Amino acid sequence: MRIFYASGERPNQALASSQVWRNNLYLSLVDLGHDVVEFDYDLNPLLGHADVSKPANRAFVDEERPRAEAALLAQLEAAHRAAPVDLFFSYFYSVCARPETIRVIRAMGIRTMNWYCNGSYQFDLVEEIAPAYDWCLVPEAFRMDDYRRAGANPIYCQEAANPQIYHPVPVERDLDVVFVGARYGERPAYIRGLVDAGISVRVFGPGWQRPAPKPRASAAVAPRPVARLGPAGRLRRLLTIDGWRRVARRVLRAVGRGAPRVAPAGAPAASAPPDPLALPPEVCGPALSDEEMVAMYSRARISLGFSGVGNVVAGPDRIVQVRLRDFEAPMSGAFYLVERVPELADFFRIGEEIVCYDGPVDLVAQCRYYLDHADEREQIRLAGHGRALRDHTWQKRLADVFLEAGLEPQGQKPA
What we know:
Strand content: 5-15%
Number of strands: 14
CATH class of the largest domain: Alpha Beta
Helix content: 25-40%
Structural class: alpha/beta
Mean pLDDT: 83
CATH architecture of the largest domain: 3-Layer(aba) Sandwich
CATH topology of the largest domain: Rossmann fold
Low-confidence stretches: 10-21, 215-242, 259-263, 311-315
Distance between the termini: 10 Å
Number of helices: 14
Shape: globular
Order of helices and strands: EHEHHEHEHEHEEHEHHEHEEEHEEHHH
Strand order of the largest sheet: 2-1-3-4-5-6
């Protein structure tokens, strides 16, 4: 099959140099034996203005998107003249192209398929363009009906990992507990809980070596109570520094730290309390290169995963999801310990191929147990790696999707 591939996703921001995310899909399509032509255009400026509710972003998109669409159609038409293109495969947000542009591609006799993996909390960024495609690949099972309501044709396709990129590395397993990824959300509070429990933990990625921002002075006008806000409003509030600090205090109280203190009567006003998100400098490392990140999965006795997305306050609005890391870590040979998401049980045997924790207290307990039980840890690690290689490669995911969509004859996969 001849495929025109267009990625509108920025490189993995948790890495220092990465084109890994782009290569995950591109290389997997090539591995399957397809003839892949890649769109040559920098869509990052458009992606940086994806929130078109801001007038400045909308103005930028209105000016820049037509240029991107013109380049897309020109390159696709040239490729189609050289040899017929069977499939336009993209990772596009709505700011990358308008629905009518995708329909022009379909009118050329080319089938269209879009992959998008932020729908758990940013479905609005793809809602406009999704109905224009023949198929939308959706890794969030709970969003399938949202795509259908928008008029799209979703195919459930969970994330995966490319074993050419993610694989065990022969290095000494010299670190106890490690997390690789950006500093945000609940993550600093969970790591702080491990530090306070005396567990040797290291974190690597953007933001960990930067001092936590100091609290801002109180505003003259009090913010609206959270109870008056809808889910989207609560999400925006929680993505502020003050919102995350409230989350941190709740998590730290759960592990026995951060209880409120009452000053004695008549005592002088106390200075600002210590930042509950602060971590010892020796715990925090820099963002890693692609190669360093993959090797870190082999260096760590326990590799951590966090499942919270966006609105992380416990309650009906809290969003958790299966993440790319949930497949990359086992594919790299890691012993993987991640917050429980029910959907994970569809892909791994919990407790046999990966291990899940339920909240900050259980995270501490699970780390202690598996650091003390090396043989059991090794058995789970090897089983998880085998399962990932067998069932969770991008090559297998895409081949199965193409069969389901009727793009490959039933029972036949690309050479």
